[in-house]
Amino acid sequence: MASTWGDDPVSRDLTIIDVRLTPILVADPPLLNTQGVHQPYTPRLIVEVVTAEGITGVGETYGDTTYLDLARPLAEKLKGRQLTALNGLFTLADRVAVDASQVSDAVDVGGLRGVQTADKLRLSVVSGFEVACLDALGKALGLPVHALLGGRLRDAVEYSAYLFYKWESHPEGVICEPDDWGAALDPEGVVAQARRFTERHGFTSFKLKGGVFPPEEEIAAVRALAEAFPGHPLRLDPNGAWSVPTSLKVAEELRDLLEYLEDPTLGTPAMAEVAARAGVPLATNMCVTTFAEIEEAFTRGAVQVVLSDHHYWGGLRNTQHLAAICRTFDVGVSMHSNTHLGISLAAMTHVAATVPGLEHACDTHYPWQSEDVLTERIAFTGGRVAVSDAPGLGVELDRDKLAFLHRRWLDDDGALRDRDDAAAMRVADPDWVTPAVPRW
Ligand SMILES: O=C([O-])C(=O)C[C@H](O)[C@@H](O)C(=O)[O-]
Ligand SMILES: [Mg+2]
């Protein structure tokens, strides 16, 4: 009998016969964070899996050399395997050796990305392959990715406007793509940027990337946002730049205005100390970025919201596992974002649509990205992305755009192939060194 859920997978040839890895460099505006400034171009990796029937699925993940070095052997191991063998991806990845010099348990080693364990590096690579397999499987079966994940609980996913302190342009002489967002270096600039976000995309909640200026200035910016957008959810995220006393001081000043305070300080013990007295929920994408870190953080009450990132956590199904653990401990869940393109936004939207109790708007950098590898950009309506019911992720790769961005990567002498915000800052300020933490 014909299945009402699409073709029977058993009758299909779902063998992966080819895996293509395309590293690219995508334009990034001069966004400031506690480490420095974004490079003019950021590396990403586009993963394509091709089945025996000629179906292609796409995925996206970090494109820095460390990730590429792991992705290449994993791609080889995947050939000849079944699209449906998603659990096997983790076993395959375990067999890929990780360069020990890239591994560290320090929570600030990855800059803004938390610990950099061998497992996390592998999972970040697996995520790109898992999404590509799910996209291909969905296309083969005529089902959207959310259906493969158990079905959507909502028809649109809400995102927040991700506000950054920002220069007007990259330093003089730096080859870059111009942007029309303008500078944002004080409360007025931040509010103007927020208005642009609402005009362009309809966002109604706002996150300010902090840790750039002394806390008093960032408190003033949040106050200005609260005045300009009364009653709207606001967050501030200094990426662990503050000491415990500074975090508590900021919490005292802003507790009535913030939906949550994100990673005010570094590491679970310090976060637990702040959480105990802050009077405002703490969110993290730094002290809990692996399953191994959950127990200590949750039992100490260090975090009230985990900002999942399907890249860190090993894909969409692991994100669902994380969300289930969070539910068990009555910890909220939402989503973190780094510079990413439409493939990852589509993946985030599919998984977010399946997570029960998603009460906070997810982060996304996508509005900052003027370039993409899709034939059509993904649109925000009222700050939301509609959940696609088309087969797979519901996106289409634009091969010309992919080739163009890959050419940029090929032409780079290596200076931009590993994101380094401190090095980008040194172009403007030769004395700049990554600030020691706590910075304030
Ligand atoms: O903590 C966060 O939300 C991030 O680390 C997000 C991004 O990495 C952001 O800070 C950036 O790219 O500058
Ligand atoms: Mg954060």
From TrEMBL:
<dbReference type="InterPro" id="IPR013342">
    <property type="entry name" value="Mandelate_racemase_C"/>
</dbReference>
<keyword id="KW-0460">Magnesium</keyword>
<dbReference type="Pfam" id="PF02746">
    <property type="entry name" value="MR_MLE_N"/>
</dbReference>
<feature type="domain" description="Mandelate racemase/muconate lactonizing enzyme C-terminal">
    <location>
        <begin position="187"/>
        <end position="281"/>
    </location>
</feature>
<keyword id="KW-0456">Lyase</keyword>
<protein>
    <recommendedName>
        <fullName>glucarate dehydratase</fullName>
        <ecNumber>4.2.1.40</ecNumber>
    </recommendedName>
</protein>
<keyword id="KW-0479">Metal-binding</keyword>
<dbReference type="InterPro" id="IPR029017">
    <property type="entry name" value="Enolase-like_N"/>
</dbReference>
<dbReference type="InterPro" id="IPR034598">
    <property type="entry name" value="GlucD-like"/>
</dbReference>
<dbReference type="InterPro" id="IPR013341">
    <property type="entry name" value="Mandelate_racemase_N_dom"/>
</dbReference>
<comment type="pathway">
    <text>Carbohydrate acid metabolism; D-glucarate degradation; 2,5-dioxopentanoate from D-glucarate: step 1/2.</text>
</comment>
<dbReference type="InterPro" id="IPR034593">
    <property type="entry name" value="DgoD-like"/>
</dbReference>
<dbReference type="InterPro" id="IPR029065">
    <property type="entry name" value="Enolase_C-like"/>
</dbReference>
<dbReference type="Pfam" id="PF13378">
    <property type="entry name" value="MR_MLE_C"/>
</dbReference>
<dbReference type="InterPro" id="IPR036849">
    <property type="entry name" value="Enolase-like_C_sf"/>
</dbReference>
<comment type="similarity">
    <text>Belongs to the mandelate racemase/muconate lactonizing enzyme family. GlucD subfamily.</text>
</comment>
